[in-house]
Amino acid sequence: MTKNKLDKIKLFRAKINLLKKHNKLYFINDNPEISDREYDNLKKELVELENQNHFLKELNLLEQIVGSPPSNKFSKIKHLSPMLSLSNAFDKNDIKDFLKKIDNFLNTKNIANELFSEPKIDGISATLIYEKGILVKGLSRGDGVTGEDILNNLKTIKSIPRKIEGPGIPQILEVRCEIYISKKDFVNLQSNFANPRNAAGGSLRQKNSDETAKIPLRYFAYGVGEINLNFFTSQSDFLKKIKQWGFLVNQLSKIVKGIDEVEKNHEKLDNLRSSLDYDIDGVVYKVNNFNLQKRLGNTANSPRWAVAYKFSAEKAITKIKEIVIQVGRTGAITPVAKVEPVTVGGVVVSNATLHNEDEIQRKDIRVGDTIEIQRAGDVIPQVVSVNIEKRNNKSKKFIFPNKCLCGAPTKKEISKNTKREDAVRRCLRGYDCSYTAREKLKHFVSKEALNVEGLGKKVIDHFWDLRIIQEPSDIFNLDFEKIESLEGWGALSITNLKKSITKSRKINLSKFIYSVGIRHIGQENAKILASFFATIEEFSKLFEKKKRDKILVSLSELDGIGSTQIKSVANFFSKEKNKNIIINLINELQIDNYELNNKNGKFSNKKLMFTGGFQNMSRSEAKLIAENNGGKVMGSISKKLDFLVVGDTKPTKKKIDQAKKLNIKILKENEWNEILNS
């Protein structure tokens, strides 16, 4: 590297540190030392330095601090109902699959054919809560369960009603909306935010609402939290009524019926998006009928009744500089292309996934190749194609390593269903592999697991390299004196991290099981296991082989837990390292017992199994109803079973005979309905 480059990097780092200092003074201490104009000029100077010297962008220093500043100034408030993420669809087949799943769950055909279509605004989600028509709370999305109190900042948007009047106003109304900045207003801002969405997010997180008021924020109301069927019957009905109350709703929203109308509407909005004065990245389709929404319910991550149909991914041309190997938390060996930085959909991309060994071979991807990349679902960059004509004649095929970065042999597993070799190579050492262990740590602190704020991926990498954290329990015994000596860690950031760690010590059993990173145990499976074990003491019996073998047999009786999950649990607890990690965690955490959905429900503490088809609902819906009424759904007949619920359509005779033999109470479909309606 030349002296000129080194000098520019040194200068750039010095100015970055200066900007960090003024960010802290402004956003955290509320005691700025320089004027707004001086602050803006400093940011502008850094942007210009990056633009003039491309190698500075690769340092990724400015991107980390320009945008929405982190804040711990807002109090936390729990949402009346969770703000879940939406599942995504990328083509017509995905939409067909979405509709099919709805029909299967409700045991009907085309009952949910009427969908409500809404442009998916690329903004910031927020919730407005009204009591007796008065706006009393305004929350950010946060982690979906708990949001930040940003009421004063939301009140700077003059078009948000402070008071709603008229007939039929609920006692409590939770209106969900998307906050955005128009394209025109964003241009006029002349800010250093990368895009309007970042600008909107940064504005809403200002400590001083007077500063937020200077930003031309707008909103569209799009949803309701807790649905009261006495007030609203459908999404279209809800939006019609709140529009009468003074809320702004998107004029492009409409009812569509059937897959053909969905496709026509999607194509129309895709063609229209460039002419709109706000960014959209897809279309949201919801089952219009609120009663059906309520029946469909949610998975762990998303509602069953809604999907985000994304627009076609934006593409760009670039060049592969290098192919590197990464190891995931499940031991998966993933090839990643390091590419010449290129902007795709407003985001600078320097890495693209190559998926697996088979994909590299199929596309014959090589170092030095000119490639077309896209952001799948506008998120994960991937290689679409290779321009063979521009390939260097001396290029060589990429040889995929058969060993993990830790040196251990990798393995392609055989699929139980297809009997074919898996496309993914894996290191099977788990926590004994330092690369896998590091990724498991990132999973452990993620929002869906312990949600330790302040321990992002880059921090985990840094702390791992410094041997500050080597396993999950280390998080609760950090050497803060050592951390405080590191660049970027001051008294305030240390205090905030301590608070976050303290908060994360209290966790429910379901999240704990999910957090430890047992392969094939996702959030839904973790809930099923938590329901089965109920307490951490019972879960801990998996440590002992004799008890574990008996437990694994019992797990096979659970509905939703198959042989793949059971084998994975068995493998996980057979390793001494994993057992020690969990024991160490138990000593550090307060793990709450699993709470039944309804302790006083009609099937509280009862074990049920279902066989045969039902007339008015699917077995999936029947199982959900049982669980919501405190029941536990089993997958096989045993003496522990309280009820075998038999549908009228093609029940399994063998199961009925087994139940009779074991004196298990059999409920016919009409008896099941009578209990539900009693």
**Major sheet, described briefly?**
5 strands, mixed
Helical segment count: 26
Proportion of strand residues: 15-25%
CATH top level label of the largest domain: Alpha Beta
CATH architecture of the largest domain: 2-Layer Sandwich
What is the CATH homology-level superfamily of the largest domain?
Answer: DNA ligase/mRNA capping enzyme
How far is the first residue's CA from the last residue's CA?
79 Å
What Rg is obtained from the alpha carbons, in whole angstroms?
27 Å
Widest sheet: strand ordering? 2-11-10-3-9
- The percent of residues in helical segments reads 25-40%
**What count of structural domains?**
6
- Shape descriptor reads globular
Mean of all residue-level pLDDT scores: 86
Q: What name does the CATH topology of the largest domain carry?
A: D-amino Acid Aminotransferase, Chain A, domain 1
Give the low-confidence spans.
26-32, 66-71
Number-wise, the strands total 24
Instruction: Give the helix/strand class.
Output: alpha+beta
Question: Could you characterize the architecture of this molecule?
Answer:
This protein has 678 residues and is an alpha+beta fold. The protein folds into six domains: 3-65, Helix Hairpins (Orthogonal Bundle), CATH 1.10.287; 76-310, DNA ligase/mRNA capping enzyme (D-amino Acid Aminotransferase, Chain A, domain 1, 2-Layer Sandwich); 315-390, OB fold (Dihydrolipoamide Acetyltransferase, E2P) (Beta Barrel), CATH 2.40.50; 429-504, 5' to 3' exonuclease, C-terminal subdomain (DNA polymerase, domain 1, Orthogonal Bundle); 508-592, 5' to 3' exonuclease, C-terminal subdomain (DNA polymerase, domain 1, Orthogonal Bundle); 607-677, Rossmann fold, CATH 3.40.50.10190. It contains 26 helices and 24 strands. A five-stranded mixed sheet has the order 2-11-10-3-9. A hairpin with a 3-residue loop joins strand 15 (370-376) and strand 16. Helix 1 runs antiparallel to helix 2 (36-52) and helix 21 runs antiparallel to helix 22 (563-573). The longest helix is centred in the N-terminal third of the chain and has 26 residues, at 3-28. 31% of the residues are buried. The model is unreliable at 26-32 and 66-71 (pLDDT under 50).
